[in-house]
Amino acid sequence: MNVSRSLLGAVGTKVSLHHPERIPTTKSILVVSNHRSLLDAPLLMAALNRPVRFACHHYMSRVPVLREMVSAMGAFPLDAPGERQHQFFRKSVEFLQSGQAVGIFPEGAQPMVQVKRANQLSPFHRGFAHLALGAQVRDLAILPVAIASTQEDKHRLAPLKLFNLFDPTEPLFNCGGWHSAVVYRRVHLLIGYPVWIDEVQRQHYGGRRAGAMAKALTHACMEQVAGLLRLGFQ
Question: Which segments of the chain does DSSP mark as H helices, in order?
Fold first, then answer.
């Protein structure tokens, strides 16, 4: 928490928080948000006023400086690209069952490496939905959040070739160019309506229905984030 606030203060990010009353009072929350900057995790923790165990991209646990930065914020890495994410699911369930908040960026690594427009949203991966439906956690809420950056600076962090040396498993590092770094100057953080996972959904999740249920839940959360993102630029 202190690390997050100190980092935002050091770079001079000005934040406008919208609808904080929607943040659930339950202990176990799965936060899902759009993602373009290294500041996204500290920004969300400061807004929610509680620690959040963010699942960071695998390469961030391998690259010096980034590794120490995400570790200081209590983040834990996803499994390497192409693996089945067993460790990610196991750790996430442990955190949620102990009443902690877990944060996931369902767009994946590409928006971090190859930065898109601030109002553009990439398709969500379904891993967070499978996690929410499969975890045996009572009173679990998924909280969709949109980060709308209205003023920012874009920098080049390092050549992708350098990142490839530390994590050759990431396909994005086989491309030419540089890893981008976005620093928010003014940003709107818009809180969505929590999506509650009940016992009936957990009982029906499994077999052939699992994929369809995860797809529907992913679509619902992505639609919320997309709508909030549009509001942030009005």
Answer: 2-11, 40-48, 66-72, 86-97, 110-113, 127-134, 160-166, 199-204, 209-232
Q: What is the bridge-based pairing of β-strands 52-56 and 101-104?
A: parallel
Which class for 117: exposed (0-12), middle (13-18), buried (19 or more C-beta within 10 A)?
exposed
The model's pLDDT over 43-100, given as tens digits with 9 standing for 90+, comes to: 999 889 888 999 888 887 788 878 888 787 778 877 777 667 788 889 999 999 999 9
pTM of the model: 0.90
Using CA atoms, how far apart are residues 114 and 156, in angstroms rounded to an integer? 11
Distance CA 7, CA 13 (A): 9
**Calpha distance 223→229 (Å, rounded):** 10
Phi, psi of 16 (to 5 degrees): -110, 120
Q: How many helices (H) and strands (E) does the chain have?
A: 9, 8
Residue type for 113, please? V
Read off the pLDDT of residues 191-204 as tens digits, 9 standing for 90 and up: 999 999 999 999 89
